[in-house]
Amino acid sequence: MDNYWKSFGTSVRGPGHVRSGTPNQDSFLTLRRRWGDVVVVSDGVGSHKTSEYGSRAACLSVYYAAKEWKDTNTDTLISSIQSNWLSFIRPFDPQKSAATCLFAIRRNTDIILGMLGDGLISVLRRDGSYFEMIENKDVCFSNQTSALSEKTQIDSWHLIKIDPNVCNAILLCTDGVADDLLPNKRIDFIRHIYEQSKKYSICKIYRELKSMLENWPVPKHSDDKTIACLFRL
What we know:
It is built from six helices and ten strands; from the N terminus they run E-H-E-E-H-H-E-E-E-E-E-E-H-H-H-E. The chain has helices at about 15-20, 50-70, 75-90, 175-180, 185-200, 200-215, and strands at about 5-10, 25-35, 35-45, 100-105, 110-115, 120-125, 130-135, 160, 165-175, 225-230. Strand 2 (about 25-35) and strand 3 (about 35-45) form a beta hairpin.
């Protein structure tokens, strides 16, 4: 069953950053190895010059932590991600490079979903049902979010473990996408992408997804937009 899992992703610079000449502060990573899959999206927080490096470091940190993770203790996984990030972000100032981090790590026996900060993780089960992880902005300041930094605590992360056998697709996206999706439309969004993924090659779905993000239909949107997906054929 492992051979039927695939992943893809893409990221585009938002109109606001295009106008200001600012680099894309989002990053993503999708990697398949013999031991499983790693999918990550990250958004550099704020307008610091090194935000883009923070998000890149976040993606690499998750991959290397997952690669070395041999047990089932998620605290050791998160501790490794955080220590990796502090190492990878050097010589930049961590406080000026803070980044959100959303990931899915698939191993033979489980899928670990992790979320630090805003964005969205959508899960489509094999029976057609759906659940999601999304930051509750009603209990935090609208301009603040959790992120990787020198002061990040393990309990700031939200973690869920799921059975790979009951899952068809997992979609991760940064807030540039998540904030524009109405709650009652998020299930339709992942279903559409999953159905397209089954019909087309990775190259074609990548082009279609990139075109959709570049021509985002929400008026006056300005943020960078990143989507990554892990799915079962």
